[in-house]
Amino acid sequence: MTSTTLTPTRRRRGLQQRGLVPLLLGPSVVLITAFVLIPAVYGIYLSFTNTQLTGSAARNPKFVGLDNYAHLLTSEDFLGSVWNTAQFVFFSAIIGQTVLGMIAALILSRKWLRGKGAFGAAVLLPMVVPEVVASLTWASVLSPSGDGTLNRFLDVFGAGPVAALQGAPMVCIIVVNIWRGIAFAMIMFQAALEDVPDELIEAARIDGAGPWQVFRHVILPLIRGAVFLYLLLTTITTVGVFGLVYFLTQGGPGNATELTAIFIYQRAFQYSQIGLGSAASVILLILLLIFGLTYVRLSKVEV
C-alpha cells in the first residue's frame, strides 16, 4: 500500500526536478553560446577570408580558402612566435610553476612548521595583484637605469647596472610569469595533498622509504589527477598570456618575446589583417586541443 501511494509522488518530484534542470542551466548555456560558441564559429569563418579593418577588404571581404593557413605555416614570424610560446609555457608553467608550487604546497602541508600563514600569504600575494600593476612593477624592478630595483641591489655588491629586459628578455618574462602563477599551483596541490592518507605515508616511512621515495612512489601517484588537471589549466592560461608580456617587452627586442598571442594582436589590430589573425587563433586553438587531449589521456581521467 505504501509503495503504491508513494510512486505518483516520486514521479511528480522527478518531473519537477527534470523541469528545473533547463531552468537552472539555461542562463549559462545562453551566455556560453553568445560569448564563446558564436564568436568562435565566427572567428573560424573569418580565418577563411581576407577580412581587414581598412581598405576594400573591409567593405567586401572575399573567401580565400586555406591561403591564410598556408601563409602562416610558411611564415618565419608566426613559427617563431609559436616556438617562443612553447618555450614560455614549458619553462614558466610546466616546469617553474609546477615545481615551485608543489614545493610550496609540501611546505604548507607540514603540521609542525611555524609561520605557514605568512609564507602562504607571501605566495598568494602575486595572484591578487592586477596584471597591469604587476607588469609596471616588474618594469620598474628590471629598469636598465641605475634607479631600477635590480640595479640598486647589484650596486650593493659593486656590480654595474644591467639591462635585463634587453639582454635576457625571455628569461625575464619566464621569471615574472612563474612569480604570478605559483599561488594557483600551490592551492591546487595543497588541496590534493590533504586527501593523501597519513597512514600510507607512515607505512612507507616505517618500511624505510626516504622523503623523496615517499613523494615519488606514494604521494605523486595519488595526486596524479590533480597534477595533470593543473598542467592542463596552466597550459591554456599561459598560452593566452598577453598583457603581462606586452607591457614589459611588447614582443621585443626584435621578436625575441613575440608570443603567439602578441602575433595575433599585431596582425589583427595593428596591421588590420583580421582574417590572418583569426587563422592564427584557430591554429593555436588546435594546438591547445591536442595538448588537452594528451593531458587527459596521461592522467587517465574519464571525461
TrEMBL record:
<feature type="transmembrane region" description="Helical">
    <location>
        <begin position="88"/>
        <end position="107"/>
    </location>
</feature>
<comment type="similarity">
    <text>Belongs to the binding-protein-dependent transport system permease family.</text>
</comment>
<keyword id="KW-1003">Cell membrane</keyword>
<feature type="transmembrane region" description="Helical">
    <location>
        <begin position="226"/>
        <end position="248"/>
    </location>
</feature>
<dbReference type="Pfam" id="PF00528">
    <property type="entry name" value="BPD_transp_1"/>
</dbReference>
<feature type="transmembrane region" description="Helical">
    <location>
        <begin position="20"/>
        <end position="45"/>
    </location>
</feature>
<feature type="transmembrane region" description="Helical">
    <location>
        <begin position="268"/>
        <end position="296"/>
    </location>
</feature>
<feature type="transmembrane region" description="Helical">
    <location>
        <begin position="159"/>
        <end position="179"/>
    </location>
</feature>
<keyword id="KW-1133">Transmembrane helix</keyword>
<feature type="transmembrane region" description="Helical">
    <location>
        <begin position="119"/>
        <end position="139"/>
    </location>
</feature>
<dbReference type="InterPro" id="IPR000515">
    <property type="entry name" value="MetI-like"/>
</dbReference>
<protein>
    <submittedName>
        <fullName>Sugar ABC transporter permease</fullName>
    </submittedName>
</protein>
<keyword id="KW-0812">Transmembrane</keyword>
<feature type="domain" description="ABC transmembrane type-1">
    <location>
        <begin position="83"/>
        <end position="295"/>
    </location>
</feature>
<keyword id="KW-0472">Membrane</keyword>
<keyword id="KW-0813">Transport</keyword>
<dbReference type="InterPro" id="IPR035906">
    <property type="entry name" value="MetI-like_sf"/>
</dbReference>
